[in-house]
Amino acid sequence: MSNTSENNVAMKRPITMAIVAMGGEGGGVLADWSVDLAEKNGYWAQTTSVPGVAQRTGSTIYYLEFMENDQSGREPILSTMPTPGEVDIVLASELMEAGRAVFRGFVTPETTTLIASTNRMYSMQEKTAMGDGRVESEEIIQACEESSKKFISANFAAVAEENGTVISASLFGALAGSGALAWPKEEFIEAIRRGGVGVEPSIKAFEKSYELAKKPKTTPITIEIGKKPASESSGPTPEQELAIINDPQSAVGPKLKDLAARVKAEFPEALTLILVNGIKRCADYQDLNYAKEYLDRITPIAKKDGEIGDGTYRLLTEVARYTALWMTYEDTIRVADLKSRRSRFDRVKKEAKVKEDQITQVREFFHPGVEEITDTLPGPIGRAILKSKLVSGVIEKVTKNGLRLHTTSLHGYLLLYTLAKLRPLRRRSLRFSVEQKRIDQWLEVILPVASENYDLAVEVAELANVIKGYGDTHKNGMANFNAIMVEVNRLRKEAADGKSGGKAAAERIAALGKAAMADENGGKLRELLSQ
User: Fold this and answer.
1) Is the pLDDT of residue 500 over 80?
2) Looking at the domain assignment, is residue 197 inside a domain?
3) How many CB atoms neighbour CB 101 within 10 A?
4) What angle do CA 83, 116, 59 make, to 5 degrees?
5) Pair 49, 175 in one domain
6) At which of 184, 214, 244 does a domain end?
């Protein structure tokens, strides 16, 4: 056996192993294979599982202990929970889960072999952050390396997907290749065979991961499933993106051909990718005229940046990006459109690994507020409802507990489909008129500011990122945006009076923007504004 295992036997201490995985990843199967493997090799084995009900998609800790059978006939007492500092092996199905295992003290430099897949499933804290709340994968990897006795990492999820199975098979292969358990490779494979489900795909993923675990240690590359590392692919070139638009077989191809030609003729080549995706997004959101309005809006900025910029087109880049995002804000029509598309149902089936002979049911939970409903209505009607406490109160009472909709039923699907088909009426809606006015006012500020202070104009362009979501989140973001715009006007006035300006003004707005993204209620922003 390995040194770890020999020491455990000598001290009459069990081999301890924790598996941290999420729902649907086969963590229970991996635990069963491991128990079967241990028992076939003359060990007592025990496994327990503790589901984490508040985690991302049902994160579960499977804990196992193996004790060599001394043939005394006495069954050992084994623990049901991992003890920090005393876990010999930790297997993590995803990088953040590995980080959590380190944080909880399950991984130690003196004891633990840590095997982790480098794919990422972002945590709720990362997803719900106002700004970019993602934790750098490199930081997690470094913590794993420093905290473990031996660290084995690779994209085991990608290996599983390539072989048509789940990550449990890949991690089992990495476990065999790690040497943390000294039983022969063939016995690991026999445990998979005795499981009897998905045997051949599981063995293929096992073999690949076994070889990865045996390879000399290299710096791991973190990639998402279905995507290549940045070193292998940097996305389509501008010419390739234009070719997609000009492809007659493309869903949007010929319809956007004239606008794509305009992008190529009137704007810098460096902006082609952003602009082509901008017109595609706007046309998909509303119609071709809306895509044309998108280009019309940023044309003055493009001219100004060409006249006064340094050739990097920093201002035009930010304006082009955020104008497209702002013009395609999410309303009830957009949500219904996205949720009723075939591609969305296909994606759900793929993620749930639904087989052809299985029936899928999708249930949506909606919690629309009064403003979400009135935003979709024609302007005069929406304003009238907002002014009426009686009508607003009735709507709040009806929607208080949310709405559950079975969208794979005929009734549920037709409801979403009908709502999505209201897209031509969006131009008359209350929200549309309000947002178009806000976008124009924002651009009207950027243009003169660019002539006064280019860096400040770039920061004003990036302020659009403060406005997010819907409901209270959108309302708070809009309030933060307006508060910072007041500060922009104050700084411009001071600059005109010769009191301040230049780089300091841009740095001030950048700091305010960062503070606005720090929390949803704007507490840090108000604190900074008061200084």
Assistant:
1) no
2) yes
3) 26
4) 65
5) yes
6) 214
**Residue 489 identity (one-letter amino acid):** N
Apex CA 511: angle with CA 330 and CA 438, to 5°? Answer: 35
Q: Per this entry, what is the length of the chain?
A: 531
Q: Exposed, middle or buried: residue 250 (CB in 10 Å: 0-12, 13-18, 19+)? A: middle
Residue type, 67: M
Same domain, 51 and 150: yes
| Residue 517 falls inside a structural domain | yes
Average confidence (pLDDT) over 92-101:
89
Residue 339 lies inside a defined structural domain of this protein: yes
DSSP notation for 324-359? HHHHT---HHHHHHHHTSHHHHHHHHHHTT--TTS-
> Do 369 and 513 belong to one domain?
no
CATH number for the domain spanning 85: value is 3.40.920.10
Q: What single letter denotes the amino acid at residue 461?
A: A
Q: Sorting pLDDT into bands at 50, 70 and 90, what band is 239?
A: low
| pTM assigned to the model | 0.71
190 in the same domain as 178 = yes
Amino acid at 384: A
To the nearest whole percent, how much of the chain has pLDDT over 70?
A: 86
| Residue matched to tokens 């230049």 | 502
Cβ–Cβ under 8 Å, residues 78 and 15: no
Query: Is residue 409 domain-shared with residue 441, that is, in the same domain?
Result: no
Helix, strand and coil content of the chain, in percent to the nearest 5, comes to 60, 10, 30
Mean pLDDT of 17-32: 85
What does the longest C-alpha to C-alpha distance in the chain come to?
A: 92
Place of tokens 């006007």: 489
Q: Which domain holds residue 417?
A: 332-429
Q: Which residues, 6 or more positions from 202, have their beta carbon under 8 angstroms from its beta carbon? A: 163, 165, 168, 169, 172, 192, 195
Q: Which pair of structure tokens corresponds to residue 420? A: 């999505």
Looking at the structure of the chain, the number of domains it has is: 3
d(CA 149, CA 108): 7
- Do residue 340 and residue 376 come from a single domain? yes
439-496 tens-digit pLDDT: 999 999 999 999 999 999 999 999 999 998 777 788 888 999 999 999 999 999 988 8
pLDDT in tens, 121-139: 766 666 666 666 677 788 8
In angstroms, the CA 66 to CA 45 distance is 5
DSSP structure class, residue 24: T
Claim to verify: residue 34 and residue 118 sit in the same structural domain: yes
Instruction: Specify whether 337 is located in the same domain as 319.
Output: no
Question: How far is Cα 444 from Cα 477, in angstroms, rounded to an integer?
Answer: 20
- What is the Cα–Cα distance from 136 to 477, expressed in whole angstroms? 25
CB 436 within 8 Å of CB 428: no
Asked if residue 240 belongs to a domain, the reply is: no
